[in-house]
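Here is the promised in-class demo. Please do not try to memorize the tokens; focus on the logic of going from shape to residues.
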């Protein structure tokens, strides 16, 4: 095998081992030693390819979010109805994690437990994913008649605020020691209901 091919194969092996570790654990709990054990790789080899744990972690989440964005782009129907866009979004999200279970934990650990010292780097990596999400809600809102006094821009801003609040609710549960897998399940189960409430409210307007 040529040296270039050997380097590429080793790089891939390190990434696959690291993704497995970061998928099962948060950044804080993930161990470089365990990554070595998973891939049967020496720590010296890992540090030959990656400066430190931060660089390796960021490369893993870069792959994660690029894979998600590409998946959406490949599976979105070209003639998607505005009214059905949110439903399609949720279906594709569930479908993605069924097909890529090795990225599910990594994704949610990143969304709900972003390492504080890497927030800016993670934000940059997530840019295309965040733009994709925003495009979805824009596409959906364009099919709706907004309340009097609520502009399209204000509706979009409000949605983002509520999205942060939704995720903060689950972050608190993580801090309280609730099992992470149960939190993720609840997050996904509640998301569609949450979107419905954000868009339509919880109180019935009296005539």
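The designed amino acids, position by position:
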């Amino acid at each position: 095998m040529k040296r270039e091919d050997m380097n590429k194969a080793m790089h891939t092996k390190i990434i696959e081992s690291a993704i497995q570790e970061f998928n099962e654990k948060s950044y804080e709990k993930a161990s470089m030693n365990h990554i070595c054990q998973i891939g049967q790789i020496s720590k010296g080899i890992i540090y030959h390819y990656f400066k430190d744990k931060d660089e390796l972690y960021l490369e893993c989440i870069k792959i994660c979010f690029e894979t998600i964005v590409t998946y959406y782009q490949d599976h979105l129907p070209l003639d998607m109805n505005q009214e059905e866009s949110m439903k399609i979004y949720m279906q594709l999200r569930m479908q993605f994690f069924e097909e890529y279970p090795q990225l599910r934990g990594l994704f949610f650990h990143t969304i709900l437990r972003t390492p504080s010292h890497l927030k800016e780097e993670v934000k940059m990596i997530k840019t295309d994913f965040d733009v994709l999400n925003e495009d979805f809600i824009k596409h959906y809102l364009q099919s709706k008649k907004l309340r009097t006094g609520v502009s399209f821009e204000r509706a979009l801003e409000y949605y983002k605020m509520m999205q942060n609040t939704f995720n903060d609710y689950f972050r608190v549960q993580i801090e309280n020691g609730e099992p992470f897998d149960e939190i993720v399940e609840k997050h996904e189960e509640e998301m569609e209901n949450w979107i419905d409430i954000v868009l339509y409210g919880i109180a019935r307007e009296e005539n």
